[in-house]
Design a protein that fits this description.
By secondary structure, this protein is an alpha+beta fold. It has two domains: 93 residues, Phosphorylase Kinase, domain 1; 152 residues, Orthogonal Bundle (Transferase(Phosphotransferase), domain 1), CATH 1.10.510. The chain is built from seven helices and eleven strands. Strands 1-2-3-4-6-5 form a six-stranded antiparallel β-sheet, with helices on one face. Strand 1 and strand 2 form a beta hairpin. Helix 4 packs antiparallel against helix 7. It is globular and about 55 Å long.
Length: 252
């Protein structure tokens, strides 16, 4: 089942040369690729749906991810360029970021300054706020899905595989995602913008756990993690507080 990814490496998907595997997950593999178009000779990321995940509902979900991202335009949301199919292989061409996930950065115990880490969290919050303004719920906010360039200047929220565009006229059955970041109501098939706020709050707590800054934002973290979605603060209030902490830190 896994052998196909080694066959793709060094090969081509239409006019895209596959150079290396960037990431391999349960439903898809992401490759670094190079466009062979003379007018588009650039590095891209190619997300390929596993061939053994090509049941109609799985293909539909993959197409939905592309459609949702295609209608989003924000500096901190990954861009997509094309949806394609070659034989039984479905793929999405998207922008390539030379960097690491926030999870990798945390695991490596990188010495990231308080100023930089606050800026990262603010950018993530503002990107989520934009997504919500477009009636989209990401449903999988976590450090693994925050990609940061090597110079820390570019940040992208990625992986909209569980995202939903409102209104949703069905009960959602979620079997994936990371348990730690899933809002309680999502486990019951209920989603709202508050579900992303829960995940964002969990992530803020995790990221700031080793910084003195956590005390100032902790009341908001507790509220954002409330079992009752209605008790979670609006996203703009959390972002505003993070910005206040950021400004205060700069003035020290």
């Amino acid at each position: 089942m896994e052998g196909y990814k080694f066959k793709l490496k060094g090969g081509f998907l239409e006019n895209y040369k596959i150079e290396e595997v960037i990431w391999h997950g349960g439903t898809s593999t992401i490759y670094k690729g190079l466009s062979q178009d003379s007018d588009l000779n650039k590095i891209v990321a190619i997300k390929v749906l596993h061939p053994y995940r090509n049941l109609p509902h799985q293909i539909k979900a993959f197409k939905k991810e592309f459609k949702i991202l295609k209608n989003l335009s924000h500096p901190n949301i990954v861009k997509v360029y094309k949806f394609g199919r070659v034989d039984k292989i479905y793929y999405i061409i998207m922008e390539y970021i030379d960097g690491k996930s926030l999870r990798n950065i945390l695991n490596e115990n990188s010495e990231v300054s308080s100023r930089t880490i606050l800026k990262i969290l603010i950018k993530v919050g503002e990107a989520i706020e934009y997504v919500h303004s477009k009636k989209v719920i990401h449903n999988d906010i976590k450090p693994e899905n925050i990609l940061i360039s090597k110079n820390f200047l570019d940040l992208k929220i990625i992986d909209f595989g569980y995202a939903e565009k409102l209104p949703v006229f069905r009960r959602i059955n979620y079997t994936g995602g990371s348990e730690k970041y899933i809002a309680p109501e999502r486990k019951k098939g209920i989603i709202s913008f508050k579900s992303d706020i829960y995940s964002y709050g969990v992530m803020i707590e995790e990221v700031l756990s080793s910084y003195d800054l956590i005390e100032e934002i902790y009341p908001y973290i507790l509220l954002s993690k409330s079992e009752n979605p209605e008790k979670r603060p609006p996203l703009k209030e959390i972002i505003k507080k993070l910005k206040e902490i950021y400004e205060n830190w700069n003035n020290k």
